Amino acid sequence: MAEDIGQESVREAYRWRESMWCSHCGASTRERGFWSVLINHFAPAANSAADLVNEPAFRALRIAEINRLNAGHRYLDGLDNLTYAEYPDEDIQALSYADGSFDLVLTSDTLEHVPDYELALTETLRVLRPGGSHVLTVPLRPDLAATRNRAGMKPVFHGVAPGPWAFVRRPAYDMKCLHDFAMDFDSKLEAAGFEVEVHGTGIEVVFCARRPS
User: Shortest CA distance to 107 belongs to which of 181, 212, 10, 169?
Assistant: First the structure.
């Protein structure tokens, strides 16, 4: 995670969050938590992502996946009602989609790279139908008292491969961390107009942010 966390226990927790890959599908701890929330909400009898995407009720949902859900994208990719785009090619601060276009918006560790994450949340709320949900993760900093903007701080980049492997990943400027999110992030979702469910504790939290009916 960030070089300035200053707490080995927090750094170790992030290593755990971003590793422990499934030997079958390659999903990290964070990704498995994300899929667990989707299963819990949309197909409690399902045992896996593969089961979930074969559930008729889930397949009928209009879904926006903004940034690839890493190992999980291959399960979503076969859905007829999926709209997939990468940020910043599709600007989450000014989405091209019409009001009420989706039942479900999915973003995983995306908002920390967006200059105005509050505007982005306003946009995901707009494109959801009433009762629709934005399921998301952000990297939380339990060592911070409040969410902060990183302007003027030492640059931190997420997910950039080192050395000669950098060319196979997104450009570094796309991966720059612009915000450090603290454990107050649920209040940011509520301020944007969502009804919020928090799944998990600590840095492995997955948020289910629902647009009121």
Answer: 181
